[in-house]
Amino acid sequence: MDTHPNQWLSERIKAWGHELGFQQVGITDTDLTTAEGRLMEWIASGRHGDMEYMARHGTKRSRPAELVPGTLRVISVRMDYLPETPETTRQILADSATAFISRYALGRDYHKLIRRRLQHLAERIQDAIAPTACRVFVDSAPVLEKPLAEKAGLGWMGKHTNLINSQAGSWFFLGEIYTDLALPIDHSQGSHCGRCQACIDICPTQAIIAPYQLDARRCVSYLTIEHQGGIPEALRPLIGNRIYGCDDCQLVCPWNRFAQPTRETDFLPRAGLDTVTLIELFGWDEATFLKRTEGSAIRRIGHLRWLRNIAVALGNAGSAPEVSATLRVHASHPSALVREHVAWALDRQGLT
């Protein structure tokens, strides 16, 4: 069998990626025809909710060469972030007085760290083959990162629509380099979910409406992070103590028994956010919120949505004098969004 002329470079890219802290590096072409059809159907059905940016760029998201002209290949990378054992995570989730934050957001914001490492990788490639075009992305542009990673052999799309790797589970971040290099491509793993539907069954709001189909409008991660308005009342009791994201579908996935703890200290919990109580967090004014979430992905939702989310969680907490007292502090908050959710929480606690 003939060896691809750039096979040597592909091997070096993967070795450099591992040196830079990526657990896996894969390479794929730019054909996302199947994924594009699914994306368009998802948007047409309105399941993207308020995320109008998913439709804003037309086909640039699913056609890499339209976003970056000349793109022939996409280098996809994986970096593991699991900060603690699943047992610890389950204990926090089961304690209604403690705030549950999706484990990816407990440490420093991953965007800058992965982007910096990817830029180093791109520079190594350019030093080896000059001139060549390399553009780095980490959730920073219209990119279909999961379908690209799937094609690059980093895993398969699970029924919860997250990527799963047979040797590492799903607790990982993704990043991409768009390049004009004609590199040899890797092959996809193929799906290994079988008949399992643990993720579908566990979803607290039943947002996974069918295998491989997510209605974001019901998803706790969407409701607590992306959605800017009021959280639908029917879904509030189902959110429990989840104030930023949701990890339930990952916690029950049997493939995550192979997940390894992160090697990156930046992804470890900061500011005590892994064990903090709802009452303490509800007491943060905006200045405290900004200070304690500096360098964190959490800051992007702003203080008002932060209070909105915590109010819902307090409404779901067990009745106690300190809970009602904490809620009443913000009963006359200047923001109608906050006031409305506090009023709901007080009513749910039987205090109106």
UniProtKB/TrEMBL annotation:
- GO terms for cellular component: cytoplasm
As recorded in UniProt, coiled-coil segments are none
Q: Which InterPro entries match?
A: 4Fe4S_Fe-S-bd, 4Fe4S_Fe_S_CS, QueG, QueG_DUF1730
Q: Does the keyword Transport apply?
A: no
Q: Which GO terms describe its molecular function?
A: 4 iron, 4 sulfur cluster binding; cobalamin binding; epoxyqueuosine reductase activity; metal ion binding
Q: Where is the active site?
A: 139 (proton donor)
The positions annotated for binding [4Fe-4S] cluster 2 are 203, 219, 246, 249
Q: Does the keyword Iron apply?
A: yes
Which residues does the record give as cob(II)alamin binding sites? 61, 139, 163, 174, 221, 246-247
Major subcellular location class: cytoplasm
Biological process (GO) annotations held by this record are:
tRNA queuosine(34) biosynthetic process
Q: Which residues bind [4Fe-4S] cluster 1?
A: 193, 196, 199, 253
Pathway assignment: tRNA modification; tRNA-queuosine biosynthesis
Q: Which cofactors are required for activity?
A: [4Fe-4S] cluster; cob(II)alamin
| Reactions this protein catalyses | epoxyqueuosine(34) in tRNA + AH2 = queuosine(34) in tRNA + A + H2O
Q: Which residues form the 4Fe-4S ferredoxin-type domain?
A: 183-213
According to the record, cofactor stoichiometry and binding are noted as:
Binds 2 [4Fe-4S] clusters per monomer.
Keywords linked to the UniProt accession: 4Fe-4S, Cobalamin, Cobalt, Cytoplasm, Iron, Iron-sulfur, Metal-binding, Oxidoreductase, Queuosine biosynthesis, tRNA processing
Q: How does it assemble?
A: Monomer.
HAMAP family linked to this entry: QueG
Which purpose does this protein serve, as stated in its record? Catalyzes the conversion of epoxyqueuosine (oQ) to queuosine (Q), which is a hypermodified base found in the wobble positions of tRNA(Asp), tRNA(Asn), tRNA(His) and tRNA(Tyr).
- Name used for this protein in its record: Epoxyqueuosine reductase
Record the organism: Thiorhodococcus drewsii AZ1
